[in-house]
Design brief:
GO molecular function: 4 iron, 4 sulfur cluster binding; electron-transferring-flavoprotein dehydrogenase activity; metal ion binding
Keywords: Acetylation, Electron transport, FAD, Flavoprotein, Iron, Iron-sulfur, Membrane, Metal-binding, Mitochondrion, Mitochondrion inner membrane, Oxidoreductase, Phosphoprotein, Transit peptide, Transmembrane, Transmembrane helix, Transport, Ubiquinone
Organism: Takifugu rubripes
Strand content: 15-25%
Structural class: alpha/beta
Function: Accepts electrons from ETF and reduces ubiquinone.
Helix content: 10-25%
CATH topology of the domain at 68-142 and 179-267 and 376-453: FAD/NAD(P)-binding domain
Distance between the termini: 13 Å
Number of helices: 15
Radius of gyration: 24 Å
Number of strands: 28
Enzyme class: oxidoreductase
Strand order of the largest sheet: 9-8-19-20-21-18-22
Shape: globular
């Protein structure tokens, strides 16, 4: 595991060096708050008690709390310790070392350890890695399983229709590697630390606040609130000339930035999917290291976008990573992505691989699927969006790590000359760096996303899956995405659900405990944990909406689309009606609830730092 103790020492040194700053910040400043521990919850009749819904100045729990802030300064602050954030940090320090410049780069990550919240299939295309570290093999990068075999299938309920993997199709994986992305991210963290990046795991960026600011100037500050049962200390600020936001899919801070700077004004709404994954130890005679299997079709109908993967790892023991992806633009509120995943494992083509094996890990996360049409404006005064936060995933490839890494590297290359300029008007004034967007549009990332821009929206036709596959075969495989039009998505995923009365309930088989499993035993394998004395980080804008609208019209879809059993409707203690119960301690931080809630009443905010899943190489 990643040696967190090294970063704890740095964190303590940083805290000792803090200096007190004024409680009221100066004008022209943008603030990003980072949560270590939040205020203890007290019993109340309402569901939501979080300060983002009930402001501190109107909440008696905060009376008498000392709200003084502390601060430190860095040249660049990076929020998020995933592939994009770490690649940006590494590239910045590489450039600083090359040019003999002193550059302080600080990276904060909400997981307790680097890689602990990372989950992906994952089949890695090594192009960006090779650019970042040409000698990655000599450095010991954990890419142990080159792809040796590609299998693609259309599944019916009982049979499999093989689809030939022709050269040039986006699903072709020749030259790629099957990886456990959490292990890869931990390795990136080690490389970053060796270069001098300051890494602070266990610190969750909680909010962005805006005082008055000039459009061309903004200082981004990071706060770290610490709180035990009876002690509260206002959060630390990390002042920086520029902050990179690499939070991952549907980032909590990115949502705030979109609104403040109107970053989504000229793009389509983002569309998403939920990906569920398990790691299995199987019988050695069934193990085929390097084999990659993908499928579409059953158990989903032709109008529900999704598919599966099953990857055979080569890591000294017979392991397979398998998962199921469901587009969140589905319209039947009775659909449960988790139970579709469990049902898929019983298909005659899949079950034999798992029989006699043991499931050892489980997790879930949301995926960006909007592609080129949904990329927002990427720069604003004092900040930049990188990685899966704005969404650079190549959907038909089911790959986003290489594009996320490249976006971080391009951001670093655009930032470096501006941050280190000798004639800077201010040592702390926030920088606006539009060069990043320009360079991204000239890179292979943009070219790649442009060529596949129409594949995902092409599935919105009468024939659904099959119409989309025909479109892909003609316009991508033959014409390489050079058609002179760009298709549109269908709008927000939250708007796609139909009322329950217009849909057919889905009867799912009971799990057998051998191949398929119940939800709570699955969540237990994710290592998820949150301190119980904090307000639930699954907040509701209006506590009355779940029963009055979601349950009444859509039969409570949050109890089905959540892959962790966070939401459930239970009888009122008085016996008259139902109420929504939020089991926030189960949350695996996938953000699906925030995306798919038909009322857009759920607002996912970060819990205290270090909480959430504890994935070990997922």
């Amino acid at each position: 595991m990643f040696p967190v103790s090294r970063y704890s020492i740095q964190a303590h040194r940083c805290i000792k060096a803090l200096r007190t700053v004024q409680t009221e910040p100066a004008a022209s400043q943008l603030y990003t708050t980072v949560n270590r521990r939040t205020c203890s919850s007290v019993s109340a009749p309402r569901i939501t008690t979080h300060y983002t819904i009930h402001p501190r100045d109107q909440d008696s729990r905060w009376e008498g709390m000392e709200m003084e802030r502390f601060a430190d300064e860095a040249d660049v602050v990076i929020v998020g310790g995933g592939p994009a954030g770490l690649s940006a940090a590494i590239r910045l320090k590489q450039l600083a070392n090359k040019h003999g410049k002193e550059l302080r780069v600080c990276l904060v990550e909400k997981a307790s350890q680097i890689g602990a919240h990372t989950l992906s299939g994952a089949c890695l295309e090594p192009s960006a890695l090779t650019e970042l570290f040409p000698d990655w093999k000599e450095r010991g990068a954990p890419l142990n399983t080159p792809v040796t075999e590609d299998v693609f299938s259309i599944l019916t309920e009982k049979h499999r229709i093989p689809v030939p993997m022709l050269p040039g199709l986006p699903m072709m994986n020749h030259g790629n590697y099957i990886v456990r992305l959490g292990n890869f991210v931990r390795w990136l963290g080690e490389q970053a630390e060796e270069l001098g990046v300051e890494i602070y795991p266990g610190y969750a960026a909680a909010e962005v606040r805006y005082i008055s600011f000039v459009v061309s100037v903004g200082i981004i500050c990071i706060h770290f609130p610490f709180l035990s049962q009876d002690v509260f200390e206002r959060g630390m600020e990390l002042h920086a000339k520029v902050t990179l936001f690499g939070e991952g899919c549907h980032g909590h801070l990115a949502k705030q930035l979109y609104k403040c700077f109107n970053l989504r004004e000229n793009c389509e709404p983002q569309t998403y999917a939920i990906g569920l994954k398990e790691l299995w130890s199987i019988e050695e005679k069934k193990w085929r290291p390097g084999r990659v299997e993908h499928s579409v079709g059953w158990p989903l109908n032709r109008n529900t976008y999704g598919g599966s993967f099953l990857y055979h790892l080569n890591e000294g023991e017979p392991l397979v990573a398998l998962g199921f992806v469901v587009g969140l633009d589905y319209n039947n509120p009775y659909l449960s992505p988790f139970r579709e995943f469990q049902r898929w494992k019983h298909h005659p083509f899949v079950a034999p691989t798992l029989e006699g094996g043991q499931r050892i890990a489980y997790g879930a996360r949301a995926l960006n699927e909007g592609g080129l049409q949904s990329i927002p404006k990427l720069t604003f005064p004092g900040g930049i969006l990188i990685g899966c936060s704005p969404g650079f995933m190549n959907v038909p490839k089911i790959k986003g790590t290489h594009t996320a890494m490249k976006s971080g590297m391009l951001a670093a290359e655009a930032i470096f000359p501006r941050v280190t300029a000798e004639n800077s008007e201010s040592e702390t004034a926030g920088l606006h760096i539009p060069e990043y967007s320009d360079n991204l549009k000239k890179s292979w990332v943009w070219k790649e996303l442009h060529s596949v821009r129409n594949i995902r929206p092409s599935f919105h036709n009468y024939f659904g899956l099959y119409g989309g596959m025909i479109y892909t075969g003609i316009f991508y495989w033959i014409f390489r995405g050079k058609e002179p039009w760009t298709l549109k998505h269908c709008g927000l995923d939250a708007d796609q659900l139909k009322p329950a009365k217009d849909c057919t309930p889905i009867e799912y088989p009971k799990p057998d405990g051998k191949i398929s499993f119940d939800l709570l035993s699955s969540v237990a394998l994710s290592g998820t944990n949150h301190e119980g004395d904090q307000p639930p980080h699954l907040t509701l804008k209006d506590d009355s909406v779940p029963v009055a609208r979601n349950l009444a019209i859509y039969d409570g879809p949050e109890q089905r689309f959540c892959p962790a059993g966070v939401y459930e409707y239970v009888p009122m203690e008085t016996g008259d009606g139902m109420r929504l119960q939020i089991n926030a301690q189960n949350c695996v931080h996938c953000k699906t609830c925030d995306i798919k809630d038909p009322s857009q009443n759920i607002n996912w905010v970060v819990p205290e730092g270090g909480g959430g899943p504890a994935y070990n190489g997922m």
